[in-house]
Predict the structure.
Amino acid sequence: KKENTGLISHKNTLLSPIGMVFHVCPANVDTMFFYSLVISLTMGNKNIVRLSNRLSDPFINFLFNTLNEELETNQSKLFRNYISVIKYDHNEIINTFFSKLCDARLIWGGDNTSITFKKFVGNPRCKDIAFSDRNSFSIIKVSKFYELNEKQKFEFARLFYNDSYTFDQLGCSSPQSIFLIGSEKESNDFIYDFYSKLNDIVDKNYNTDYGSLASLKFNNMFKDVIEDEVQKINRKSNGLIFLNSSNDKIKKSCGGGYFYTYNINSVKQIKNHISRRVQTVSYFGLSKGDVNVIINDSIGLGIDRIVPIGKSLAFDYIWDGYNLCEELSSKKYIL
C-alpha cells in the first residue's frame, strides 16, 4: 500500500477492482499462477484460474488441498466466491467463453500461448497482460569471487543453483548465459573452480528426469559444435555443462544445467546483448556504478529486472515491466 500511494491518493481518483480476471497458467513454472492470483485478490478481483492437465505434480495437489482447507475456515470463506480453478486441455470454446466473461487476462506461458489466446475474442474492454518468451543472464566479476573463502564460494554456488535449477533452468528469470568480467585466464580459472563447486551441489540436490534431459543436452551440444557456436566445453556430468561461446550472439539454452559463458572486459560490453527478450540480469561483484551503467545502457532497449544472484526467482508485484497492482485495477475519475 505504501509503495502504491500514487494509485490511491490522487485527489480525483478512486481505485476499484478491474472485475473478473482470467489467469492462463504456464506449464514450465507451475506455481506462477498463485502469485498473480494473490495480487489479483489483493486488488479485490474475482478470478478464474485455468490450469493445464499437464500439471500433475504432487505438490500442486498439496497446494490446492491447503487452499481448500483455508477456504473452509470462517475467516476465509468469503474468498470462495473469488476463486474458481479449472483444469482442461486446450479448448477453443471454453477459452472463448472465459475470455468474453473477463475484464482482464493474465497470459503466462510465452509467445505461443500469448498468440493462441489473442485469437480468442474477449469482451471489447478486456485487458491482456501477456508474458512472452524471455531470456535472462548472469554477470560475475571474477576478481570478487576470489575474495571469498571456500565456504563463501560454496554458498555463492548454492545461490546460483537455486536461481538456475529450481525450474530446470526454464523459468523466464533463470540465467541461461554467464558473462565473466576479467582477463581470459581469470575467467578460465573461475570456470574450473566454480564448475567443480556447482557440480557438487547439482549431484547432491538435482532430482529430475536425467534420461530425456541428457539426450536433449547431448543433441544441443553437438549442434552447437557443428555450427561453430562454442570453442570449449566443460562437462563432467549430465547435470552441468558450461559452453564457452565463440561469438557474441546470445543463444537460448535447452535448460537442465546448460550454460553459455562469455568473457568480457567491462560491464559496458553488456549493451551489445540487451534486447526486449532480456528479462532478468542477476549479478555478483558489481559496484553500484556498474549497475548504473547497465540501467542507463538499457533504457528503452530491454531488461526488466536487475538483481543479485540468489534473487532471480524472487517474485514481486512489479514483473516483466508491469505493475500488476495497477494493471489489475481500474480508476474512477470524480470531480
In short: The mean pLDDT is 91. The longest strand covers residues 230-237.
